[in-house]
Amino acid sequence: MTNDILEQVVEDYFRSQGYFTQHNIKYRPATKEQKHAVHSDIDILAYHPLKKASDRMRVVVASCKSWQGGLNITRDLKILQETPNRKLAGKEHWKLFREIMDKNWAQALKAKVKELTGTENFTFYLMVTKFQGSRDAWENSKLFCDNLPGCNIKIMNMEEMLIPLQNELTITPTHSGLSRMLQLIKAGGGAVTYKAK
Fold it and tell me: Domains of the chain: which residue ranges?
């Protein structure tokens, strides 16, 4: 079980879709410039055994950002493209997205995924509480796509994970505390709902 609630939601979501998952997998670039760089980790790595090897959705890498304010796509893309070293919350902004912003980190990510799954072509998901702005602008950012060639880039919010997860629950106890809580809410006649946008 993961410690981060968003990571647990993501893991439960992918498991409900037929994926096997692993979480918090350490990796780092092997280049001389970043030899002593701290490790990063793959929050969730998901593998679907029934999807074709050529299907980029067979392997999924999920980076979880449980920011209360969510992701502001327009603002964040502008910062990442124009002033990536700008500090937000005490950290250079590009470092929040290092695996898609920096070629060395992207190559290290692809190498680690290939080591564990046999493929370096996968779908990279940024999992967030919510987002504002154009999903298409993020998913088709030239910078991200150039750094992760052969991979799809997607974004998903809590609603897109929780509602399907909640709808697929049965009365059989689940593997996680979060899904079990959703089962109990459902058993009590309740449901997680979202306001109309």
Answer: 5-158
pLDDT, position 172: 77
Q: Is beta strand 40-47 parallel, antiparallel or unpaired with respect to 20-27?
A: antiparallel
Q: How far is CA 153 from the centre of its chain?
A: 10
Residue linked to tokens 């079990």: 180
Give φ, ψ of 60 to 5 degrees.
Answer: -125, 135
- CB atoms under 10 Å from CB of 107, counted, come to 17
* Spatial contact of 160 and 194, defined as CB atoms under 8 Å apart: no
Q: How far apart are CA 51 and CA 60, in angstroms?
A: 12
Residues of the chain short of pLDDT 50, as ranges, are: 1
62 closest CA partner among 154, 131, 134, 148 = 154
Contacts of 122 (CB under 8 A, 6+ apart): 56, 58, 59, 60, 61, 113, 151, 152
Q: What pLDDT does 109 receive? A: 96
Domain 5-158 has CATH 3.40.1350: yes
Report the b/e string of 154-165 with b at 16+ CB within 10 A.
bbbbbeebbeeb
CA–CA distance, 148 with 133 (Å, rounded to integer): 22
Integer Cα distance of 37 and 195 in angstroms: 43
